[in-house]
Design goal:
Blueprint lengths: L7 H17 L3 H8 L3 E5 L4 E7 L8 E4 L10 E5 L1 H8 L5 H6 L4 E4 L1 H11 L2 H12 L6
Parallel strand pairs: 1-4
Antiparallel strand pairs: 1-2, 2-3, 4-5
Length: 141
């Protein structure tokens, strides 16, 4: 399936905005920080990797994300998916369990840890859809 994103640059821009939204959220950001489940997302069709971890003491954020595998932490959760699946997932249009069973999302490491994150990020779906409707309507599904 073709990516709905106009370019890899647009994909990265949208994902950065999404993770900044998550980081800034007064409820979701601290919950993810306290859960402390480092994650690695591989977006196959974009040839990109995004690593995310909880902020450490002294860092003025809830989350830290890096578009590289050059990191000083080990992810507990590894997910591989297309940009299309990522876009659908973050809009709440792709069920994590079903997508994993159908291999649209391939997971590695601690699946249980990944499942614990699903309810925490659920409130982000509506906000992501709002962002897309306002600024990236071609990505809405």
């Amino acid at each position: 399936m073709a990516s709905p994103f106009a370019s890899p640059q647009e994909f990265r821009e949208v994902m950065d905005r999404l993770f900044q939204m998550i980081d800034d959220d007064p409820e979701i950001g601290p919950q993810l920080r306290d859960t402390d489940v480092p994650q690695r997302f591989q977006f196959e069709d974009m040839d990109m990797v995004l690593n995310v971890r909880a902020a450490r003491a002294g860092e003025h954020a809830n989350l830290v994300w890096v578009w590289s595998d050059e990191i000083d932490w080990s992810p507990k959760v590894r997910m591989t998916m297309s940009s299309q699946t990522a876009n659908r997932y973050f809009q709440g249009r792709e069920n994590f369990v079903y997508a994993t069973a159908r291999r649209r999302i391939k997971t590695g490491a601690e699946l249980r840890a990944a499942l614990e994150l699903v309810p925490i990020i659920k409130p982000v779906h509506a906000r992501y859809r709002e962002l897309l409707a306002a600024e990236y309507p071609h990505l809405a599904v």
